[in-house]
Amino acid sequence: MNENDKGGFLWGLLGFCIPIVGLILFLVWKGTKPNSAKAAGIGALVSVVLGVLFYIIAAVAGIGIAASAAMILPVL
Fold this sequence. Notes:
Layout: H1 9-17, H2 19-29, H3 34-72
């Protein structure tokens, strides 16, 4: 284990902003810099999970808005 490996918020932020970079850093560093790898990996994972949740919520809201508009507006 590297004694200079402190993990760091910035690696997590980089992984969050660019998830593919976070995944690559995680895979490359998991043996040599485990704390930094974990931070980058968690950032990437959080970004992907929040992205999926956002799309699910947007789809449900879109379906709800379309359904309510169909009930309000008469079909011509």
